[in-house]
Each structure stands twice: as C-alpha cells, then as structure tokens.
Amino acid sequence: MAAVLIPGFLLLMCFSISPSLQHISEAEPLVRFKNSVKITKGDLNSWRIGTDPCGGKWFGIYCQKGLTVSGIHVTRLGLSGPINVDDLKALANLKTVRLDNNLLSGPLPHFFKLRGLKSIMLSNNTFSGEIPDDFFKDMSKLKRLFLDHNQFVGKIPSSIMQLPHLEELHLQSNKFSGEIPPLIETNKNLKSLDLSDNQIEGEVPASLSDRKNLVMKLDGNEELCGKAVNIECEAIDPKEAKDSIPPPPSGGTDSNRTTVNAVLLAVSFLIMCCIVVGFIKKRNKKRNAGFRKLDKERPSDVVEVKVPESTTVKRSTESSKKRGGNAEGGSTKKGSSHGKGGGGRGGGGGGGMGDIIMVNTDKGSFGLPDLMKAAAEVLGNGSLGSAYKAVMANGLAVVVKRIRDMNKLANEPFDVEMRRLGKLRHPNVLAPLAYHYRQEEKLVVSEYMPKSSLLYVLHGDRGIHHSELTWATRLKIIQGVAHGMQFLHEEFASYELPHGNLKSSNILLSESYEPLISDYAFLPFLQPNNAQAMFAYKTPEFAENQEVSHKSDVYCLGIIVLEILTGKFPSQYLNTGKGGIDIVQWVQSSIAEHKEEELIDPEIVNNTDSVQQMLELLRIGAACIASNPDERPDMRETVRRIEQVKK
C-alpha cells in the first residue's frame, strides 16, 4: 500500500468556519436575555441583533426544523445573577432550557410563564429559597426537571408530582425537607427519580415505592422510612411518649445537691466544648492554608508534560479504507515516560505547541515529543473529527483524534471533563489517556485497538476477523455494548445524551472481541449546530420535534443490535440516506409480515436454539427503534432484556 509523508501533527491544526447571517425576530428577546446575565467564563458574542438564531452560528441555540428556536443550551459559561424569564416569552416554540453548571442565583425563575417547556435543566448553580407549592401546576408538558446541586429549601412542591408526563426528576443535593408528595396516578412515564442528599423525612409514598421500572435514589435522607428504603415506619403513641418522660426529683437536700451537680456538669461540658472548638479552628486554619496552596498547584491525578515549541518529524500514512473510517487507538504496551517538568495547563491559544496532559496512566506516560517523532497513519474522518494512529519509538500505539468545532470551550471546563472521562473504568468503555488543548485545537489520545471497529469487522474486507463473528461472538458484543451503555447512563445521568453518537464505528474490538465504546459524553463540548452531526440527532424525535433524550441513545443501541443480527449496513448512518439498507423500515415491515427469520444473517444461523435467541434479540432491537420514544424501553430495561438472552 502506498505511503504518504505527513509533515507532523501541524496537519491537525487547520480548520475554518464561514459565517452566514440572516435577520429573524427571535434574535431580539434572546439578546435581551443575554444582556440580563453576567458572563464570566466565555462569551455569547454570536448572539447579535440582525443575525439569524437558526442560521447555525448562535452558540447554544437549537431550532425546530431550522425555522424557530426550540432550545437554549448555555452551560459552563459562568453565567451569574438572576434570570428574567419574561424575555423568553416571545419564543413561542421554546421547549428546552438548559443552563446547568453556571453561577446563577436567586429563587427559581418563573418558568411557569413558559407553559410549552418540556425540559428544564438547572443543575449545579446556586439557586436558593423555597419553591411555591403550585409552581408547576400549569406546566403539563414538562418531562424533565433537573434542579439538583443547588440550595433550595422547604418542601418539595406537590405540583411537581402532579405533572402527567414527567419522566425524569433530579432534586438531589439540595436542602429540601418534609415528606415526599405522592405521584399522580395518571403519570405512567416517570423512570428516574433522584432525591438523595436532602433532609426529607417520613414514609415514601406507595405511588413511588410500588412503581415498577422506576430508578429511585433516596440515600442521604436519614429520616425516610417505608418499603422503598427497607426501614419500617413506626407510629409513636403521644401517651406513651408523655409517660416516658421521667418525673422531676423530690426532696429538699437531695434536690439541691442534684441541682449543684447538674450545674457543675454543664460548666464542665461548656469548657470541653470551648477546647474542642479551638482545636478544630486551629486545624481548619492549617488545612485551608493547605487547600489554598494546592489550588495553585496541579492536581495529583493529572500528569503534565512540557514539550519544545517545534519539532521536525516525518510521518507515513496508509489508506483509511483498511481501518473502516473512524477507528480509535491504543496498545497494551507500556509507554515511555518523558518530560518531568511543569508548565502551563494545556497550551492555551497562540504560541507554541502546548502540552500533553495525561489523564489516565494505565498504559504508561508519554509526551508530545513521543507523538511528534512517531509515524502517523490516517485512519479516517468521523462526525467529530479526524483520527490518526501513532506508533511511538517504544512500541506504544495510540490514536490521536482531532475534535473539530470546539473553539468556544474554555480550558478549565475542558480539563475538568477530560479528567472525569480519564477516571472511568469499565470493561466495555474506552477511557481517554491524554489530551492536548489549544484555543483553536483540541486533541484526544486514546488506546489503539488492532481489530479496529465493529463497523469495519462487519462490513469491511470480510477477511478472517469477519469470519470470527460467530453467533456467540456477536451476542458477546451486543451484551458488552449494552453493559457499557448502562454504565454511561448511570455515570452521566444528568447529561441530555450520555453518549449521543453511538454507532458501530464508535465500538472498538479488543483481541478477544470485547467491545469498547468510544466517543461518548462529548455533547457538552460541542456547539449545537455541530452537535447535530451526532447520530442521536438522526432519531425520529429530533426530525419531528427537534428533541433528544436518553431514549435517543436507546434508539442508537437498537440500530446496532439489528446491524449485528442482520449483518447489513444501516442507511441511517449516511447523511443522505442513500446506500445501505433502511434497517428500521426493513425490520418493522418484516415483523409485521411475520417474516422475522428472513432478517437474520445466514452466516450465523447454526441451529434452532440459536435462531430462537436471535429472534428474541431482534424483538428487543425492534422495541428500541420505535418511532415514539415513549414506547421504547429505557436503557436499564433494555439491558435487562438483553442479559436474559443466553448463549
């Protein structure tokens, strides 16, 4: 195969964006909204009067069919101050407001004025105060409410539990008190409820504890009781409580002696308290000084490598066709350890090549010089960027992915997210090893998988790796992907899309055909118009209503299940839809005509028993691709059903 020289990783540093402007009336209320808050960690300069919010250039704006604003997703910009909801009333089709991970404060904004909202996500701010009991009574369309990690107090509004279409409610890590209101009987959709780490008390309502398929978290509320927390609720008889109080002491001398002893005991107790408080203050003072010092230093879980500003390298490449387009990288060999010096965090904009920041040293440590001296092989281009395989001098092989269109993301939030991803440990999830940050460029380094992607093994040159895709291997892959997705949905429960881009090119295969999921949890990194290149945005709910949710990941998992069972390339992966097989229409029509067995890949049909298992999985995959997301099982239920299919 012909080799092509690439002049170093400077090749990765070039991309451009061409603007287009068009006036629309919705720009004015959005600009007023922007001007009502303070922005401390970024900007919303793309929000300008006279430009089109649906033209693809407004950061954080989603539009319905490209015509009218349906969502505001502005996270991690350090927005502070109260919110004036009145500015948003002019957006007639607004369905989603996502302002999590900011510095917004004050009471809960009057979102009840926006009766068409389906999602409100305000996690990780500093909102406070009580929420009126009837706050949500007119918000009957609301499906998702995330108010977790704020400072709300008082009782949980009963109007929340009266919402007929509520699916996800996250109120954890606040200071809510009192009892949990019962859930309205007509609500059949609630799937996720997190009330942990509050001050809630009393018995958990039967309408929740008896609910099947409800994932409920209540830990951190010590006064709760009932079946849901396995603590029996004991009624207290007021008469018994009164009788249990000891009578006051009688007798003059004995009474006086008792009084003196009590006073002495109280004084001794106060002296001891003063000593303890003084000790604690002294210790905290030392500890806080240590915290201030640590704040100025590099956290211990990040290994930083300073590198030269320029290096001359030679690079070889092979055809991307062999690797199936969107492979990710890695090796099981230990890497070199370079550059023990410090330096800035990830480079920043302009000047120099910056640093490689290690976030996962399971495969050893390496620096940018190692990559610069390595021979690079172009693996292909995916929806999020280009991928390159680099084999370093010591034999360590990695994949470097350049993720496009992330220029608005500041260094600090990118660093926090990458470190979080680097800490993930699951046998079916590929954690990144390192990253490189520049204002105009973000690179993510991960482990290289020699067997490449599921896409390539299924539909590539159909060589020896394809012949090894027996029924047992395919079932192993399906179950591994399902387990990995359940882990991601639990780890990133507050994300609108825990994965967002699940497809066979983002499932890598180890030597033993263990699947590893890649390219997950990137949605917070991307601008909305660029995020729409992700596969979850090709679901029926986005095409119809410009909405995505956890159920969109379920849809993508269903496509993969059907792709593995049929052996066919889904046309859904293609932007034009031309090419491959419309696997959704094919499966649904075949099931309707009772021709399910015709769907199964002939290469894996061995005996009657295996066919029956394949048909079970086929029905699970078909349930996952239902047009209406409400009719799909959630990820937890999907995994449970898949796990029941035995080899």
Automatic annotation (TrEMBL):
The keyword Transmembrane helix applies. Residues 338-354 have a biased composition (Gly residues). It comes from the Eukaryota. The chain crosses the membrane at residues 262-280. Residues 1-27 form the signal peptide. It is a single-pass membrane protein. Residues 295-307 have a biased composition (Basic and acidic residues). One of its GO terms (molecular function) is ATP binding. One of its GO terms (cellular component) is membrane. Keywords: ATP-binding, Kinase, Leucine-rich repeat, Membrane, Nucleotide-binding, Phosphoprotein, Receptor, Repeat, Signal, Transferase, Transmembrane, Transmembrane helix. Residues 373-647 form the Protein kinase domain. It is found in: Membrane. Its main location: membrane. Pfam families: LRR_6 (PF13516), LRR_8 (PF13855), LRRNT_2 (PF08263), PK_Tyr_Ser-Thr (PF07714). Residues 295-354 are annotated as: Disordered. Belongs to the protein kinase superfamily. Ser/Thr protein kinase family. PANTHER family: LEUCINE-RICH REPEAT RECEPTOR-LIKE PROTEIN KINASE PXC1 (PTHR48007), POLLEN RECEPTOR-LIKE KINASE 6 (PTHR48007:SF63). This is Protein kinase domain-containing protein. It comes from Brassica carinata (Ethiopian mustard).
